[in-house]
Structure formats: structure tokens, C-alpha cells
# Entry
Amino acid sequence: MPERHWIEELPQHAGATALVRGWVATTRSSGKIAFVVVRDGTGILQVVLSKKDVAADVWDAFGKLTHETSVEVSGVVRAEPRAPGGVELQASDLRIIGPSSDFPITPKEHGTAFLFEHRHLWLRSKQQVAIARVRHEVIQAIRDFFYERHFTLVDTPILTGSIGEHAGTLFSTEYFDLGKAFLAQTGQLYVEAAAAALGKVYCFGPTFRAEKSKTRRHLTEFWMVEPEVAWNDSAANMRLQEDFVAYVVRRCLERRKSDLVELGRDLAPLERVVPPFHRISYTDAVARLKELGADMEWGRDLGGDDETLLAKQYDRPVFVYNYPKAVKAFYMKENPDDPRTVLNNDCLAPEGYGEIIGGSQREDDYEKLRARIKAEGLPQEAYAWYLVLRKYATFVHAGFGLGVERTVAWICGIPHIREAIAFPRTLYRLWP
Ligand code: 4AD
Ligand code: MG
# Structure
């Protein structure tokens, strides 16, 4: 029995015998010579069978192959410069492991609804595989960036008692005798506590928002990475963000270029993602948007269309900073130079992808934070522990949250974020 190999390993085994298991992509035959293209998740391999050299049952098995049949093939690895990966397999044996008749996803165009109903099978398609690999690289790059800079990962709870962002978008569940528990919208409040212990920290996990929005930028379950740094102010927070985003994009360009090319991604805009990013205050952004013809007033949050229009003016991501207090979360630090605003920023990706990061310096003044919690009508008991962080040696600190799916959608250049996660959860989708 020849040794079993992944397709990606075969170029190192030219001349040797190998056994490969995978799924049939395509077949063709001239009557005497047959070709089977097999994929195994690590690569694609052209398998060649010659009728005169293989047993009759092997030739018969070839005749039964359909799209996605799972197979085991063995033979000699041969250098073939024209084949993908530079090798092909001259097969001596081919066995069907699992037949597949009428695989629902065919090369013809399918509607989006159909594809998402068959997401468990659609995942095997070339473009979906490419997106999954880019996502994997984004996540690895995120971890490497913080590891290299000596941040400590702190895992924050998913079941929580306090509201992180907006009371209106919470999923809740009964929690024994303790009343309601909420699915975390953010780990931020917890990493703020941890920053006083470890200095530079981050959390990274799934977060939940019961958003009734049907836009291409919203999921109800998405992954967010949230660094928090003691002694960083808002300006330092933005410098960390630009270094971080540029690092993640560069890693994808370095290591996943073939997947980006498979997706038809124009690489030039990604190559421009280097610090410094552009910076514009919210107040100036409103004026700019008015000049550009948007219906915008000071005091309103930027909508998706406003973000797209504004970001289009720049060749790289842009920070919009110091928004009105009234449209932002309670924990953001009041701007001492203009108390109508807070020391925060959003980072808008180019090419119409909109906000990928929300960040801020945190309110570190006990009385101000207490007043904000009260003014927003938040349950004060639930925030007692968070407020107390300002009683026991308060400290300047800042952090941000980057949404993984929005980042992946942007880097891949795909129109909707639901393809940026294997099994998306949206207003209308809980299956598969
Ligand atoms: O701006 P947000 O709501 O900020 C926070 O949650 C802060 N606690 C972060 C922090 O300072 N530690 O969300 C941050 C990012 C957004 O910029 C976006 O990329 C993503 O999370 N995001 C979503 N992604 C997909 N679907 C949704 N419904 C999202 N809501 C936010
Ligand atoms: Mg935001």
C-alpha cells in the first residue's frame, strides 16, 4: 500500500508512488486515456488513467465518477509542468468511496437563496474555499500582530449580565434564578478591567447583535477582536489601528495572493493600505458630506451611504473622529475641548465597505461615567463593577473593535459579509 499524501505534498514526491483521497471536480476521456481532476482541500491534482495499463474494474470505476464523488487513487507522481502544482498522478488504482449523484451545486448560476440553503455543500466551491482561506489568514494575522507586540489574550464571557453597546439589540436567555443573561455584544468592559492587570490585552470571539437590519454589512453573530491598552489616548489608539489594519492586509497579500486572484480581487487598492491613514473630524466630515450633496446634519450618526460617499474621497482607509456624544456609547470619554463630542473614532474601509472598526478613549472619570450610565437609563447595579474600575486607581485607556467579517469581505472584495463566515446568522437565517 503506497503512503497516503495530501495533494499539496506531492511536488516533493515526484517519481514515487502515492495514494490520495479527495473529491472529483471534473472528468474527461478520449476512450483510451482518462483524466480526473481531484481536489482534497489542499490542492487540485490531475489523475491520468490509461485503459491498457489499469485493471478493468478500475476503468469501470472511472465511468461511474460524477461531480463530487469521493475517491481514493494511487499511482506514480510524475512531474508535469503544465499541471496545477507541477505534478500529475499516473494512476494504477482508483476506488469510489462515496458516490454522489445530482450534486445540487452545479457550474450554472444559482440564486443566492438557493446557495445559502445549500451552504453546507456550497462551501466546497472554489470561491468559497478561497474566502475561507483568506478569513483564516486574517485571523492568524490578528493573533500574530498582538502576540508580536506582547499583548495578552483575555477570553471574556459570552453570557453576561451587563449591556455592552445598545440595549435595543440584545439576545437574552433565562439564567437560572438570576434573571436574564445576555449574549455578549462586546467583550470591551471586561478587557478594560484586564488592562489594569496586564497593560496590553485583547479579546477575540463571537459577538451577538439582535439587529433587525438587512444590509450587506450586518450579521446577528459576528467575530470581533478588541484590544485595550492602558495609557493610550485616542491619538495613540488610531496609530495602533492603522498599524494593525495595514499588517493584516499585507499578510493576506503576502500569503493568500492566489486566493485573492481566484476571487478576481483588484490588488492595487489593497497595496495602498499603508499608514498613515487619513483623518477627518466628524464635524469636518459633516461639512464635506454636505458639499458632496448628502442630506446630513451635525448631530446625526453617519449612515452606510454617508460612509461610502466619504470613504470614496480617499485612496486608503480614513478615520472619522470625535462624534457627537448623543449617537455613541456611554463609555466613550467626553472631549474636554468640545463636550458635545467624545474622543472616539470609526475606521472606514475604502471601496464602499464602510466601518470596519469602532474605537475610543474610555471615560476614566468616576462621576462623569456614573452620570452617563444614569442618563442612558442603564441598570446601575449591573455596571457597579465597571464603574468601580475608576475608583481604584483610574487610568487613561483606549481600545477598539474590528469586525472580522467586514474586514474579510473588504479584503476579498465580495459584496456581502454573509459569505465571509462559514455559516452566517442573519435576520432570516438560522440554518444550516
Ligand atoms: O462599533 P462597534 O459596535 O464597537 C464595539 O462593539 C466596541 N465595544 C469596540 C471596542 O471599542 N472595544 O463594533 C465594532 C465593529 C464594527 O466596526 C464592525 O466592524 C463590527 O464590529 N460590527 C459588525 N459586524 C457584523 N455585523 C454586525 N451587526 C456588526 N456590528 C458591529
Ligand atoms: Mg460602530
Remarks:
- The first strand starts at residue 17 and ends at 29.
- The first helix runs from residue 56 to 63.
- The chain has 13 helices and 16 strands.
- The chain has a mean pLDDT of 96.
